[in-house]
Amino acid sequence: TWILPLAGVIIALVILIGFVYSWRRRFTVLHLYLPLYVALILLPPWVTIRNWVPVIPFLYLWFALGLVAVSRWLAGRFEARSFQRPTWVAAVLVILLLSNLIRDVGHVRRGQEFRQYGVPWPIEERVLAEASAWIVDNTRPEDLVLHIQPQLLYLYTGRQTTELLASNDPVQISTLDPQAVVADVYQEFDYVVRFSHKDLIPGLAEELARHPANFELVYDNDAEPRIQVYRVRKPRAAIDASSSLVSQAQLASGPMYR
């Protein structure tokens, strides 16, 4: 629906007005801190609500100041009889309540969808569980399977990864050297999982585009979020080319992640 995004835009504008209003009254270090902090949290591939926790009190403050600034501006534009501040503030609060109501209706609808499938998980978790069931049935226990969150995949399937890609943090994996990752894929892995929900494995998409013959698509849910499983074909040339990269990256060929 369009009402919830519109409410978000209105709230953001009021916060911005409050920010400028407080700056004009008195400039403090806080007015530098917030833009720098926002720039910092936007550096990772995605932003979660916990990133905003340290600045939420200041956002509330600037939202209140923004309401004050807007109400004063409106009071100056209209006669006192035709405009009463409490009425305008009540209108803003009604918009906020409506935005929460719309969100809650969305939660109810999503809950009904979960009940229909019989799995109380978000859809991205459900499609991963379905792909994991396929992996369990169609791969060997000793096969190595690359996934952006290997600990989660190991929980579902018991399939392992390598030391280079053993982190369960997608952000940390996304910072690895793409050449080292591709070398590890050819040298060690039997299967790779590409998940559109978190398609952050360095170099994988480019390698699939450059050398599609080296990867056999064996599973595809053909829906969104899309999850695909490829069997890695290990051509002699690819393994030889990756050997030097493997030694440079100091990949572990012994103990696997458990």
Explain what you see.
By secondary structure, this protein is an alpha+beta fold. The chain has two domains: 3-117, no CATH class; 123-249. 59% of the residues lie in helices and 7% in strands. It has ten helices and four strands; from the N terminus they run H-H-H-H-H-E-H-H-H-E-H-E-E-H. It has helices spanning 3-25, 30-41, 56-77, 85-117, 123-138, 150-157, 170-174, 178-188, 204-210, 236-249; strands spanning 145-146, 191-195, 215-220, 227-232. The chain has a four-stranded mixed beta sheet, sandwiched between helices. Helix 1 packs across helix 3, helix 1 (3-25) packs across helix 4 (85-117) and helix 8 packs across helix 10. The protein is elongated, with a radius of gyration of 26 Å.
Helices and strands in order:
Elements: H1 3-25, H2 30-41, H3 56-77, H4 85-117, H5 123-138, E1 145-146, H6 150-157, H7 170-174, H8 178-188, E2 191-195, H9 204-210, E3 215-220, E4 227-232, H10 236-249
Parallel strand pairs: 1-2
Antiparallel strand pairs: 2-4, 3-4
Helix pairs in contact: 1-3, 1-4, 8-10
Give the strand order, joined by hyphens, for the main sheet: 1-2-4-3
- Number of domains in the coordinates? 2
- Total beta-strand segments: 4
Class of secondary structure makeup = alpha+beta
